[in-house]
Design goal:
The chain is of the alpha+beta class. It is 54% helix and 11% strand. The chain is built from 14 helices and seven strands. Helix 1 packs across helix 2, helix 7 packs across helix 13 and helix 11 packs across helix 14. It is elongated, with a radius of gyration of 28 Å.
Length: 332
Amino acid sequence: MPKNEDLKKGEIVIYKSPQGPEIQVKLEKDTVWLDAHLIARLFNVNRPAIVKHIHNIYKTGELHKKSTCSILEQVAADRKIRKMNLYNLDMIISVGYRVNSKRATQFRIWATQTLKYHIVKGYTINEEELFKTQNKFKDLQETIVLLQEKSKHKLLAGQEQQILNLLSSYTKTLTLLEQYDKEKLSLRKQARGGFILQFDETKQIIEKIKKELIEKKEAGDLFGQENNDKFKGILGNLYQTFDGKELYPSLEEKASHLLYFVIKDHPFVDGNKRIASFLFVYYLDKNGYLYKRNGEKKMNDNALTSLSLLTAISDPNEKNKLIKITTNLLST
């Protein structure tokens, strides 16, 4: 017997007439399931008529109950368990060819045309899934345009090949066809991080970096010097909540926003890009998320440099695009 959560794996609209209704049905085990009440609504007849047809279909042996009927157990308002018969697509179609109603006639016309189209073309199109795929291609196109435009900036001179590599990596992580099949969103939200960046500890780390860079003559006294309380506010924003839920629940989102905010909000007088990049790597490493299974870094140093420069020259209205790029690159 299927459980509630099993029946929520997918939804599909199998029929919609100009006058209605639009019936959302459950997808499981390569078929769909409706109860007698919804079948009656689909064909615009009373439920007893549907039950009668189902009984006759089983009686004549046209279909067998074992393969076309499943029982769903639900807890009713009185906390008692109620059992509901669900019927698969074979039964729905068989009933549709027996019911005498205008809508059943429309259904038969639709079913016949759809079957013919499927046989001739070899496939049918789900408009909703096609729309989702078009959005994903649009997202990819916007990313390509963004990288093309920014690659011309003087700050990115000499980074053209790395920008191309960045685009290649991003394109691979999208895996559009796989996303289409699995209905994945373009903003990746996968991992949960246990390590939390604390302000005092992070400041000590920045001071250590500063000391090492000064010894190498790669930084001055202004490196890591705070602008008011901006940096403390950025760390707080990573863990902010609304209505009891984190605004950036995944590790990828926190890391991406950390990199973006430290670069764009200029919390330090000098060294924002270098500090942002180091803390980005440090945060991922402390959460065990810096490397792929094969030991390779999820984002190599060259890619991180290019991404940091892209962030620095970006417009504020391009923030979401940059966050999407970063989260996708981290989700491989």
